[in-house]
Design a protein that fits this description.
Elements: E1 3-8, E2 15-20, E3 26-29, H1 32-37, E4 41-44, E5 49-53, E6 58-61, E7 68-73, E8 79-86, E9 91-97, H2 106-111, E10 114-117
Parallel strand pairs: 3-10
Antiparallel strand pairs: 1-2, 2-5, 4-9, 6-7, 7-8, 8-9
Length: 134
């Protein structure tokens, strides 16, 4: 069931809220970006995401196919969310960095289901051979 969560970057310049069902799953990927950034994400529809403050503090990074925008705070550098449109993911999406959700305790975070994805080998729908480092 969807629940409204509050999130922010480390310095608090960027704040958002999102309606998302975290029990439906989160993901970790081994692609070149996610493994360097230690990304842990969950997807939401754009209409379920609201940027509360900090639009002027956001910077954008794109790579590869330029189909996604990786938004991060220009003050503290924390990767907060991403935006893009990928048909295989159901079209337009916002990828929330789970670690930026402020209203989840450590036990709640530890209990979230995680789907591991093999992005390094463009085998997104399968689990990579090694996940312990993700």
């Amino acid at each position: 069931m969807k629940k409204t969560h509050q999130g922010s970057c480390h310095c608090g310049a960027v704040r958002f809220e999102v309606d998302v069902d975290l029990d439906a799953g989160t993901s970790r990927c081994n692609c070149s970006f996610c493994s360097k950034d230690r990304s842990w994400g969950t997807l939401a529809k754009p209409e379920d995401f609201r940027l509360v403050s900090g639009a002027n503090s956001l910077s954008d990074y794109q790579f590869g196919t330029f189909s996604g925008h990786h938004r991060f705070c220009s003050r503290c550098g924390v990767h907060v969310f991403g935006e893009g449109e990928v048909e295989a993911l159901g079209g337009a999406f916002v990828s929330i960095q789970v670690a930026t959700l402020d209203d989840l305790g450590q036990a709640e975070l530890a209990a979230l289901p995680i789907l591991y994805q093999d992005g390094r080998n463009d085998n997104w729908w399968n689990v990579p051979e090694e996940t312990r480092h993700l």
